Structures are given as C-alpha cells and as structure tokens.
C-alpha cells in the first residue's frame, strides 16, 4: 500500500489448498487488513488454483472482500510480480545466498523489510494503468 506495508508472511510447509489459504491467509491477514482499510480495499491474488475454489470465493463474499478479476496467465498485469522480482534480485545479490529453506525464509523476510517504500508506492500507483488495461481486455467493463 502507499506509505505502508505489512510483514511478509511465508507459508513454507505442505501444499497450499483452498481451505489452507482461507485459514492461514484470508482470515488471519486479509480480513484484518480489510477491517483496517475499509470498503476501498480491492483484493488481488495470482489466479492460482487454490485461490479459485468455491470455498475461497464464499469466504471473500462473507467477509465483504471484493476481488479484482485478472485474466489467467497474465503476470505482467499483476503488480506483485514487480515486487517479487525486486525481492528475488535482493536475495540473489546477498553475500551469503540461502542454502536451505530456513535461510531462504530468513533472507526473503529480511530483504522484504529492506525494499524501498518508494518501490511499493510506485507499484501501487501503477494500478491505474493496469486496471485500464484489464478494462480494455474485458470489453470495457470493470473486472470486479
């Protein structure tokens, strides 16, 4: 978000399922964030299969969380990809790159905390252009 951020939350063990996504991401994090932001929050995920279950949609609906709909297989339209790219470059550029899962999680968390706020602000501000692109792809209709 502009002028702020949350801590990176890493889900590292097992396979992410729709129910796990609800229990570990949506309810403890997204729901609380929506409560802080209010009705202006538009939630965006990356179209992963576990994000598209009926249970996930029911959860979002019951919490009053509006999801932005994005075309499948269009990571260029998803601004989080820019953040992941910057984060990946930071982790790869460390003097001592991660050698196992635990050091990778630590490196991701530390480097995420160091990402410049201006980078995050720019990504959020780019949403206008990205949404306009999606509107064009959806035949002039706002995709939510």
UniProtKB/TrEMBL annotation:
Residues 21-97 form the Tc1-like transposase DDE domain. GO terms for molecular function: nucleic acid binding. InterPro entries: RNaseH_sf, Tc1-like_DDE_dom. This is Transposable element Tcb2 transposase. The lineage of its organism: Eukaryota, Metazoa, Ecdysozoa, Arthropoda, Chelicerata.
């Amino acid at each position: 978000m502009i002028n702020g951020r949350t801590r990176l939350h890493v889900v590292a063990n097992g396979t992410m399922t729709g129910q796990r996504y609800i229990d570990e991401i949506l309810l403890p994090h997204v729901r609380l964030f929506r409560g802080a932001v209010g009705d202006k929050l538009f939630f965006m995920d990356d179209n992963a299969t576990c994000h598209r279950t009926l249970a996930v949609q029911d959860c979002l609906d019951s919490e009053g969380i509006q999801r932005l709909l994005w075309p499948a297989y269009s990571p260029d339209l998803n601004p989080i990809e820019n953040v992941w790219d910057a984060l990946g470059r930071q982790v790869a550029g460390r003097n001592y790159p991660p050698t196992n899962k635990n050091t990778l999680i630590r490196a991701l968390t530390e480097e995420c905390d160091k990402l410049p706020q201006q980078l995050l602000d720019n990504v959020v501000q780019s949403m206008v252009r990205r949404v306009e692109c999606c509107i064009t792809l959806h035949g002039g209709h706002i995709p939510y």
